[in-house]
Amino acid sequence: MKDSLTKNQLVWVIIRTFGVIFCYRALLLVVTLIQAGNLFSQTNSSLFSDGSGGSFSLFGSMAFHIILSGVMGIYLLFFGEVIHRLIMSEPFGGQALPPRSAPVKSKAQRSEPGAPWPPGAARSREKSDPRTTLTGPEEKEFKIWLEKNEALQSRAEPDQIALFRDFQKSQSSSQ
């Protein structure tokens, strides 16, 4: 079964796509600037300017667009957190999210497995993935299993949990 993209992942894909588009645009503008410079050097530049610095304004305008496109492209490709936060801050229905009084913690981050959410805290709108989220009783089993498998301790927690799930399935199928 293929997993579908979450809203969070889709927004990152869109942001990165615009980053690629802006970088591509900057690259095309650099090539165009080089071609225009070559054209001005081969022909009499007085044919293209009226004496008021027309060729300089053309090169200055192109340089401005190259810098703007390049900076936007690099920002969207490698950073983009502010834009992501702005897009994710309001659901598509147009209703604003309630303010949080305390940071939201996942079940794995809470001190007690069955502890209730902090008062006034908003729950995450994204559903947790059952393949990479542990319930209270599973956390103890998971910790014991992870201690026995020291080679897996260097992996990321979602990978460890997925391997733990595979181990559980193999144990239940062998019984």
* Major beta-sheet overview: none
Distance between the termini: 25 Å
Listing every helix as H and every strand as E from the N terminus to the C terminus, the arrangement reads: HHHHH
Q: Mean of the pLDDT scores?
A: 75
**Percent strand:** under 5%
Our Rg estimate from Cα atoms comes to: 27 Å
Instruction: Tell me the overall shape.
Output: elongated
The unreliable regions are 120-125
Tell me roughly what share of residues is in helical segments. 55-70%
Number of helices: 5
The SS-based structural class is mainly alpha
The number of E-state strands comes to 0
Task: Describe this structure as you would to a colleague.
By secondary structure, the chain is mainly α. Among the domains are: 7-88; 136-174. The chain is 57% helix and 0% strand. It contains 5 helices and no strands. It has helices at residues 7-42, 54-78, 81-88, 136-148, 157-174. Helix 1 (7-42) packs antiparallel against helix 2 (54-78) and helix 1 (7-42) crosses helix 3 (81-88). The longest helix has 36 residues, at 7-42. Residues 120-125 have low confidence and may be disordered.
Short summary:
This protein is mostly helical and 175 residues long.
List strands and helices in order, with pairings.
Elements: H1 7-42, H2 54-78, H3 81-88, H4 136-148, H5 157-174
Helix pairs in contact: 1-2, 1-3
